Structures are given as C-alpha cells and as structure tokens.
Amino acid sequence: MALRSSIFLSFITSVKIRCPSTCSCSKESIICVGGTNVPRISPNDINSLSLVNGTFSEIKEAMFSHMQSLQLLLLNSNSLTTIRDDAFSGLPHLEYLFIESNQLETASKYSFRGLRDLTHLSLANNKIKALPRDLFFDLDSLIELDLRGNAFECDCRAKWLMSWLKSTNATVSDVLCAGPEAMKGKRLNDMTSLHNECTSTDFTLHQSVASESLSVDTFTYKNDVYVAIAAPNTESCMVMQWDHIEMNFRTYDNITGQSIVGCKAVVIQSLVFVIVAQLFGGSHIYQFDDDQSRFNKFQDIEVSKISKPNDIETFQIAGDWFFVIADSSKAGLSTLYKWNGKGFYSHQSLHEWFRDTDAEFLDVDGKAHLILASRSQVPVIYQWSRSNQKFVQQGEIPNMEDVVAVKHFRVKEELYLAMTRYIGDSKLLHWGAKQFVEIQALPSRGSMILQPFSFKERHYLALGSDYTFSQIYLWDAQEKQFERFKEVYIQAPRSFTLVSTGRRDFIFSSSFKGNTQIFEHIIIDLSL
Ligand SMILES: *[C@@H]1O[C@H](CO)[C@@H](O)[C@H](O)[C@H]1NC(C)=O
Ligand SMILES: *[C@@H]1O[C@H](CO)[C@@H](O)[C@H](O)[C@H]1NC(C)=O
Ligand SMILES: *[C@@H]1O[C@H](CO)[C@@H](O)[C@H](O)[C@H]1NC(C)=O
C-alpha cells in the first residue's frame, strides 16, 4: 500500500507546502515535534500525520477533518488527557491510530465513532482505568488493539470490556488489572466474571397523582394490581389500577365519603373489600362488584367507641380474618373486628383512653402479636390467646414515648421494629432474647412515617419529613444498620407503600399537602 513507502519518503522529499517550523513535511506526510497545535495545512494527499512530544491536552471534535485523506495518525508522547466525542470524524480512510504514552485515564463514549476502516489502534502506555461501554462499537475492521501499559480497574466498569474481549475478532494485547486489590496483576482477558454483582438501585419518579392523600393500600384481584388511596380533599378512596399497556396507574373507581382518613383493602377468598375510615359519618366497608366493575356499600362498622380513627390494620390469625382500628381520640377505644362469614363485627375493645396512633400486627416467635403505639404512653404489646380468642396485654416497649407509627420487618429471619417519632429520633429496634433492643436512631424532622420495605435482598427505610427532604436508607448487611441512600422531596409525607406489578416495583408516597408521588425502584447496571 502507498502508506508504507510514503512514511520513509517523507524525510527525504522536500515539498512546497507551508510547513510549520516544528514540522517536517513531505508530499504525503507530516511529522511535527513539540508542537502546540495541529498544522492548518490541508493538501489533499497527506496520508500520514505524526504529532509527537507536543503539549496537546485534548483531541477536540473533528480536529483533523481538514486532512480527509489521512490513513495514519500518530499522537504519541503528548500530554493528552481527553479525547472528545467524534474526535476523528471526517477521516473515513483512517487505518492506523496511535495515541501512546499520553496521560489518558479514559476516553469519551463516541471517541472513535465512524472509524469503520480502522485496523490498528493503540492506546498503550496511558493511565487508562476504565473505558466507556461500546467504545469500539464502530471499529468493524479492527485487527489489532494495544492496551498495554495502562492501569485498568477490573471492577464493574470493566465488565463490558471483559465480554467484548471474548467476542472480538481483533487481536488484543494483555489487559492487565491494576485494581481492585484482589484483581491486581491479573489479565482481564482471562476472566469470566467479576467479583461483585455490578448493579445498584435508584428511585425515580414514575407518575404523580394530582391529589393529596393520607394513606395508600394495594391489593391484587384476578391478576390485576390495584391501589386504594385515601384522598381527603376529594372526599374519596381513589381506586387505581395498573394499566399493563400504558404502563401507569389509571383511575378505576372512586368510593366517595366524607373526611376519609384511611382506605384499607382486604381480599377474603374471592371477595374484595375496602374498609373506609372516616372522621365524621361513621366508617364503612365497601365491596367490589365484578359485574359493575365498581365498589358498592357493603356494611357500616359499629363505631360507638371509635371517634377518631387513625389507622386500620388487617390480618389473619389461624385462618380467621380481623381488622383493628386504632383510635386517636381521648375518648376513643381501639377496636378489633372479626369476619364471621357475612360481615365484620366488633370482637374486642383494646386500650382505653390512650390516643392510639398506630396498630401493627406481627408474628413474634411463632405467636400472633399486636403492638399499639400511642401519644400518651409507650407502645404496648398484646399477644393472642388461643384459649379465649382475644388479645392479652403482655408488656410494653420502655423508653419509647410519643410514637406516631410502628412497623415491623425482617432481614434474614431476624425481626426488627421501626418506630416513628415526629421530632427527635425515630428508632430501630431488634428483637433479641425476649425483648426489643434499640440498635439505631434516625433523626426525625417532622416525621409521621418511618416505613420499612424490601425488594428482593435490598432492605430500605423511608423516613418522611414535614420540614425537609424525606430520607431513604439502605440496609448495610455488614454493619447491620441502615445507611443514608437517597433524598426525595414530598410535601408532608404520610405513608410509603410498596406496590409491585410483578415486573416493576413502585413506592407510593402519600402527601398531605401536595401530589401523591409514585416512585419506581429501578436497577442500575454499574458497568455502563
Ligand atoms: C521531548 O520533550 C522532552 C521534554 O519536553 C525533551 O527532553 C525531549 O528531548 C523531546 N524529544 C524529542 C525527540 O524532541
Ligand atoms: C468474527 O468473524 C466471524 C467469521 O468471519 C464473523 O462471523 C463474526 O461476525 C465476527 N465477529 C465480530 C464481532 O466481528
Ligand atoms: C375519581 O376522582 C378523581 C379526582 O376527583 C377524578 O380525576 C377521576 O376521574 C375519578 N375517577 C373515576 C373512575 O370516577
């Protein structure tokens, strides 16, 4: 080919083009030593350009496009740290590209875009730690790639390169790992997998529902996923359904009422109910009517002892269905209701005169328990007595005044409680030998909810705040405590509810002063 002979000829032939003082030029080739810029001369038949020992730090977009006929470009021993996207655009015939002995730590994702004729590429003796995914995508003709003398970090960032090394037809030099510690000195070419899973997660806003809300509950019926949102400003329980085609939650039915504070769904065999708690006009149960695709009034709840419902909790004990309403008025009485096959009827009155804020049903060492949190005393623990079919007060959780919500969760069979307090510290407790022991305090700045939720092996806590961002914490399995993970802004958050459609996972955060926000839990591939 013409290129080879022209390189040798270039030194002897002197040509009549305006050659910069730092360069020697021939008809077909230019060599510049110690220059500071690319020669502006543009004869059509220059096919090789060498810029060595110069002080360039950056290859800008289309920097050589005035020398369209270049077949060889050598940029060794400059001070290059940056290669911009489309740096070599306008060079359709480029076959040899050498960028050796510079200071490159990486390259832009589209650095080599369009170099379909490139056969030889060398990035040897730089300081490359990682390269962006698919950097070599356009290099259809590549025969040889030299990456020697770099400092590759063989972590997630190298994952794509590891796979590419296996699939490419080009001959690639050894790609030696400089880190992490466990990989030092190994060849990326030999590896089949990297140490860690190379994924992280995030929460991104998926949808915003133009309504304030106090609580969100979810249920599944005939393979469809629904949510029931207590929306006091529209005086309704808004029922929404996941739309598999539009990929969002759409309005389905509205159960209207007055001063609705809670909507809780319970599916008993093939019957779907929504328990609607109201501050005024009593509380009611609605049943889903399959034929009309809407909810109809099913029954009133006896509420003689309930005056300010604050939370509804549904659960099953030994096959029987129950729900409990926590009452937060001074005169009220938290009450347990039981399903008798025809309706829900009051079964037991609990906890008199204590202004209960929340009820949490949980299994402790194989036995059914109920924890009631209240404004005026520490949380009390009830245990279900099988013999008299009632909850019996068993103890309390000391030093834990003024809890507004209590939620439980498990990490690898271990039982934990998340105790929400409005100001001061919310608390994380662990069930140890016969008692709950505090293991972590999380600063609360106007918190009405500290909600645990898990996606597969990742455990989170969402701590709402009325005065600043809400915090999402992520469980650190090694430290056995939660670390700050992400901040999200929600006006006056009142609940966080996990809603899963099977394929996609969402967190609904209700807001007492703004829109109800739906965040999606997404997996991020760190090797990108
Ligand atoms: C390259 O530059 C260095 C220092 O700037 C100098 O010492 C060396 O002689 C140069 N090499 C050539 C071939 O000009
Ligand atoms: C490698 O070469 C084979 C055989 O010529 C071809 O089928 C394959 O597509 C090539 N692979 C790549 C990644 O270019
Ligand atoms: C329910 O109420 C909301 C808010 O008022 C409204 O936008 C929506 O269309 C209603 N949905 C149905 C199914 O009636």
TrEMBL record:
Organism: Gadus morhua
Keywords of the record: Glycoprotein, Leucine-rich repeat, Repeat, Secreted, Signal
Pfam families (alphabetical): EPTP, LRR_8
Chief site of localization: secreted
A cellular-component GO term for this protein: extracellular space
Domain LRRCT: 150-199
Record-given protein name: Leucine-rich repeat LGI family, member 2a
Subcellular location: Secreted
SUPFAM superfamilies, per database record: L domain-like
Record-level GO BP terms: inhibitory synapse assembly
Gene3D superfamilies: Ribonuclease Inhibitor (3.80.10.10)
Entry superkingdom: Eukaryota
Signal peptide residue numbers: 1-17
PROSITE patterns given in the database record: EAR
Gene: LGI2
InterPro entries (alphabetical): Cys-rich_flank_reg_C (IPR000483), EAR (IPR009039), EPTP (IPR005492), Leu-rich_rpt (IPR001611), Leu-rich_rpt_typical-subtyp (IPR003591), LGI_related (IPR051295), LRR_dom_sf (IPR032675)
